[in-house]
Amino acid sequence: MYSSLDIPVSKITTRYIACFMALLVTCLTANSLAGGKVDPDKIVEKADLIRFPTEAFQVTVKITTTQDDNAPDIRLYQVLVKGNDKSIIKTLKPAVDAGQILLMREKSLWAFMPNVSQPIRLPLAQKLTGQVANGDLAKARFAGDYDAELLSTETIDETEYYLLELNAKHRGVTYHRVHYWVNTKNYRPYKAQFYSLSKRLLKTTEYTGYRDMDGKTRPTQLIMTDALREGERSVLEYSSMVQRSLPDKLFTKDYLKKLN
Questions:
Q1: Closest to 126 in 3D by CA, of 105, 115, 110, 143
Q2: Residue among 47, 26, 7, 15 nearest 182 (CA)
Q3: Residue 36: pLDDT band by 50, 70, 90 thresholds?
Q4: Which of 57, 161, 250, 258 has the fewest CB atoms within 10 Å around its CB?
């Protein structure tokens, strides 16, 4: 044992340097944020552009949900998106649900069922299947609907990420609060945690399977894990993404009533 006066100078120097470096990193991060060098909203916008095209597009989404020892539940959807306020989700499989359509326009979501004359209004937060809410497909972009705050940067597996907190600007969104990890170099989304109004963690989403889709490297697989029920998760696989012309009349209740 050393007394307080017997500690070697080398140990004092090492501890001093470690403390100084930690303080320096903290100060540099604080100065960067205070100086406005990092715009959290711009980070969210750039991450959105990684995930989806700016122009109208069509994509196929396969959702596989696993729960305990049950057989996987597999569903297939065709999704049409125009901007951040218009989308259509058409169920392709299973056959028993084929033909069901969800229409989102601005903050309203409507369900069109075969052989039902009137559409049914639904909330974005309602579950579509497994861990996937209606809004996860109908309104998946974050920019514009959330105020972003940069909490810190984190290094995970030798890669640095921005950790942002997103707070809903209005009630017409799927989640009230989101923690969002975005790569500091290329703005690729890495992970998101979704919270309820009472700040309870609902689920975690990992953005994986990055490959070329519609001319850009995008995450083609999203893994959603339930935070409340262990072992329950849904895997979303995106494919056949293509930009196409989608007239506004397509995103109206009257037009979809005719289709049904």
A1: 110
A2: 47
A3: low
A4: 258
